[in-house]
Design the sequence.
């Protein structure tokens, strides 16, 4: 589902109205976003407000997956740089996501999985050298540590759950907010908001 976005008026932008590039990059929905959760179409019992950025395709995104993992591992700094470039140059909007009780269950499960992944990566990084040093499998230790570090990077990325929960992304040109696979009730609510 696509929700058209518009540029901000001075009233929308508030303290950002004279600040570039924020004033040109901040986008606003043309309809009132419903206070329902995207996944189940139910009224939210909790909400979180966060800023969502467009994700321009970079050279990095065009790499094969295996190359990307290696690239991240060897050049960790470029990841941060890419992140800052995105924040400084990509369109964004402030979005409030709503969650129902079913969403809370999903979130608890998601957090549990993240915790287990963290635990696994720590065991691989710290536990494996301690246990295996001096044994016949000692040559495997660096690989296990490397594996542990990969799991840790992966876990940290997965732990930022809001974007995933919102199922939303701002288009690169800033014209639309795309919501992936919304519940029919959510679609209907956006539809009636845009007609009124
Ligand atoms: Zn829900």
Sequence:
């Amino acid at each position: 589902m696509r929700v058209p976005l518009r540029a901000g008026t001075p009233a929308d932008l508030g303290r950002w109205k004279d600040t570039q590039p924020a004033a040109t990059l901040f986008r606003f929905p043309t309809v009132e976003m419903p206070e329902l959760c995207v996944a189940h179409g139910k009224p939210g019992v909790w909400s979180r407000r966060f800023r969502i950025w467009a994700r321009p395709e970079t050279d990095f995104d065009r790499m094969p997956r295996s190359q990307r993992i290696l690239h991240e591992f060897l050049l960790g700094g470029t990841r941060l740089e890419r992140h800052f470039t995105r924040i400084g140059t990509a369109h964004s909007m402030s979005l409030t996501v709503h969650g129902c009780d079913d969403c809370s269950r999903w979130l608890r499960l998601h957090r549990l999985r993240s915790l287990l992944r963290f635990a696994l990566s720590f065991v691989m990084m710290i536990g494996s050298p301690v246990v295996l040093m001096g044994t016949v499998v000692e040559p495997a230790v660096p690989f296990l540590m490397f594996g542990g570090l990969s799991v840790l990077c992966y876990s940290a990325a997965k732990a930022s759950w809001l974007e995933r929960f919102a199922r939303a992304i701002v288009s690169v040109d800033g014209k639309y907010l795309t919501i992936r696979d919304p519940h029919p009730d959510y679609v209907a609510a956006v539809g009636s908001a845009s007609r009124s």
About this structure: The chain has one domain: 2-55+90-195. The beta strands are 2-7, 26-29, 46-53, 92-99, 168-170, 176-179. Residues 60 and 185 are 37 Å apart (CA to CA). Residues 37, 39-40, 42, 99-100, 102-103 surround zinc ion (CB under 6 Å).
